Predict the structure.
Amino acid sequence: MIPESSMRSMPAPARRRVQDVFDAMKVATRVENKKVLVGLAPSVARGLLLKEGKQGEPVGMRASHDAWFDFRYQGDFPEMYDLYRRAVENQWDGDRQLDWSTDVDPRNPERPVFPIELVPLEGLRAHGIRLTPDEQMRFVHDFSSWLLSQFMHGEQGALYASAQVTESVQWLDGKFYGATQVMDEARHLEVFLRYLESKLGKLYQVNDNLFTIMDALMRD
């Protein structure tokens, strides 16, 4: 471990890179199963070290699953088909069914966008940081935007994961239902993105740990 005094003397970019290496090592030491560790290693490198989720460009994640085609078109699972039909009949539209005219002021203390008692202000106080009421609302705004941004990134992961399931399942009825799940995740992603852009006015990059998890799941 590098002494704290040496870390402080480093230029900020170098200090961040060293901290990234330490973070990756910390993740590795917590994984007891060696096979899992080997499987996670590429994703940890891409997420925590290379910061591929924060390069401002689309990121390729190589999938390892097979896509199954069913050219028989037989309904082998009527229960699954019933789920598909119910999903089709109950499709929702975030554009029409949510009131986007609702005014949202993310810094209004009378109507906070996130319960202030759930915001980790105690952690700041533990480090001697005291925020004024105005600063608290700015922090709530930033924290809410960051948190919802991570939910949104996770929804993109769910979108692709459900698409993988739809490809991988071997039965036509399962593919029908899987397709409705893909559409559902797309709507979640759409609503989170629209709320962040039009109501909160802030969009944060994907957290490195979340990127690592999604990358590992896509490659598994």
